[in-house]
Amino acid sequence: MTSKHEYDDQNIFAKILRGEIPNDKVTETEHSLAFKDIRPQAPVHVLVIPKGSYVDFEHFAAEASDEEIVDFIRTAGRISAETGISRGGDGEGFRVIANTSAHGGQEVDHFHLHIIGGRALGPMLSGSEG
Ligand code: AMP
Prior knowledge:
It contains 4 helices and 5 strands, in the order αβββααβαβ. The chain is of the alpha+beta class. A 5-stranded antiparallel sheet has the order 1-2-3-5-4, with helices on one face. β1 (about 25-30) and β2 (about 30-35) form a beta hairpin. The chain is globular, with a radius of gyration of 15 Å. It starts with 11 loop residues before the first helix and ends in a 13-residue tail after the last strand. The model has no long low-confidence stretch (mean pLDDT about 95). The chain binds adenosine monophosphate (AMP). Adenosine monophosphate (AMP) binds next to loops. Adenosine monophosphate (AMP) binds near residues 12, 21 and 23.
C-alpha cells in the first residue's frame, strides 16, 4: 500500500539539507533549519523546515518525535524576534503559513513553515475580504 506521506528525497529542500544547493541560513538547530525564501513575498520571508523527511504538516504532526516537534516549534518561534517582526517588540507582527498539497498550494513536498512580515499583509486569503 502506498503511504499518503510518501517522501521524495529529490525535492529542493532535501537537496538543501544535503548541502547540494546553497541556502541563505537564518538559524540552525539539531533538528531544524531556517533560511530566507528565494522569492520573498515581503521584507521578511523565512522558511523553517525540519531536518527529518516529512512531506507536510499533517505528516510531521503525526510522525515526528516529541523532540523534533519541540525543537521545530521553538526554532520557528524565535524567527520573529531574530528578524524584528515580533508583536510589541521592534515589529508589528507577522503571519505563519503551512501550505499543504494541491489546494494549499504546496510547491515543495518537504514540510515547511513560511514566516512572513515586515509589512501589512492584507486579507488572509486571496480573493477574500479578510
Ligand atoms: P510552498 O508553495 O509552500 O511549497 O513554498 C515553497 C517556497 O519555497 C516558495 O516560496 C519558494 O520561493 C521557495 N523556494 C523554492 N526554492 C528555494 C530555494 N532554493 N531556496 C529558498 N527558497 C526556495
